[in-house]
């Protein structure tokens, strides 16, 4: 059947199953359908019945009795998944028994489904038995199975057992995703296994996670109140030397949110001793909390310390200090500091004034309140209704009715001035919208006070404003909007420039956004350059809209987008989800990245024909893809036993001037040892060194394993000691692999020495390591030594408990 026919048949069968309550008409309708019963078709039917498991089972049982139909491993797997999700474990057991009775083999997916379901209901014994049976019946657990096992064990509170499975994964060059690493780290932290947490942390650093993702993780953990976990991530970051004042500030903020000020101050002192300079926001938050705790002198000392470090105060920290001074009735100091903002180039808007007035109301300083209001009026600062009502209520409660009348006159005069000026109601609402939509990411000290921009010589009229608003709201099609704007007689931006009105950062951002949306990226870039030339710092929104414009299909400039994106990151602006998706999508369209990832994935799952076909279809990008994917393709061909094809691929790359990667050389070494061709393996190793590659841990481990499998332990030991002498030093995976090989070859006493070497090197042996050596020594009749291994294991456990 064609794809359309299959879809039609699946739809008809599903509708029949779901449409009738009584079974007899269902069976009759199914019998009347003219179609061929095929397992792959019925598998789709089962998946559509996912939310009604008993209906799916009814369909499953009905079809297996039909002549000429046989269920497959795939349909049983689907049914197992449906039954497990519904927690129908009687049905699960019945299906497993049926598979055995019908002689249907179970694959890795079958066992993984069982593991996942047993884990969800915390049936640990069945969970472990399923994993053992998987290996017992010849299915090698894959990465998905191990991940399901670890996830299930962690959810069952068995992190110590999950850790052993993780170490098995490590030996097989498998990795977890970041979420599972975090889950496992939390589990080990809960049982106090510090060594395991550090071990996992080291493995996470090998994933080369970028600093900003570490920062995001720390911030998220602190927001969730999981500061202990966040500190573990910080320790990992310290080992990579990527901790700065901002990261410490996130932890300090986390403590302050929980009102653990003493811990925040301890962290603050620790970060300064480590050489990190606190950010201005960290100083501000600490000063605010010290004022709340009535620790006035400490807050003032912290402010002086900030100034002493050369950190220029912003409006937020100064306003905080003003509020602190007022709370201690130090009004002179408060006024002096408040007025210093203008001298330091900080533009005052209504917020600092409003906070000043509220604090003065608390301190019952009527004269100063009136003084602030007059100051606002003279500076043409908006007096909000909220502020006015706060003052009026205060004066009314105090019985100062004359002062109340004076304040009402000030407010009335302000309202009249507001009506006379060019700030129409429509313009005010438009300004508020722009401030919310475009400038939301700016700090308070950077936000522009629109009310202070008072164009005295009006060069446009109310009709112009209404016309612009009408055009902007007339359509969602930006090309049509642009066309209408160009046809109109208004050109507001250039009118502002011509009359020397101040062009605010938000104005530039809006212009960049408008030019970008219609593909005029040259003009957008010119706006961006002009903005910076006039001394304005681009905000996160400015960068975002410019990069999105540069990544668009019309007027695309990828090199410029990459450059601006890097500048954005260096300016410490965090891209949002929309920007990241747009940027990565653009890169995938113009760089053979998506092809490369797909080809590598196909190689990993053994679909070599599809991978090679994809390389062949890549056209002009083929040379670049060859460089990116050669290692994956060679490794995949060798795993499939296509040795000649793998060698041909290596030779073709050499002819093109592309030398094999260390990954390719290592794959060839593993293959030759597997084929018992030691001479060839050594030859490849020498060629690798002559090509300028230094062997890495994986290469050395392949050599050790190969020599041990060829019963040449002396050569294996020589390679091992070479690693220790010249580097890279053996890691946990290398020790574990070598230890297992020695025990298999009847050299468990030598493996016992490796346990000691691991401890001397600061590597903690796992329970499996101890168990492997213990069983090996007992098999060889060395029972006394086996008991010594158990004693050493007990000593190690006792020491780790003392440490925690």
From TrEMBL:
Gene3D superfamilies, sorted: Tetratricopeptide repeat domain
PPR repeats: 107-141, 142-176, 210-240, 244-278, 279-313, 314-348, 504-538, 539-575, 626-660, 661-695, 696-730, 731-765
Keyword ATP-binding: no
InterPro entries membership: PPR_rpt, TPR-like_helical_dom_sf
Pfam families assigned to the protein according to its UniProt record, in alphabetical order: PPR (PF01535), PPR_1 (PF12854), PPR_2 (PF13041)
UniProt keyword list: Repeat
Top-level taxon of the source organism: Eukaryota
Membership in a protein family: Belongs to the PPR family. P subfamily.
Protein known as: Pentacotripeptide-repeat region of PRORP domain-containing protein
The species this protein was found in: Arachis hypogaea
Source species taxonomy: Eukaryota, Viridiplantae, Streptophyta, Embryophyta, Tracheophyta
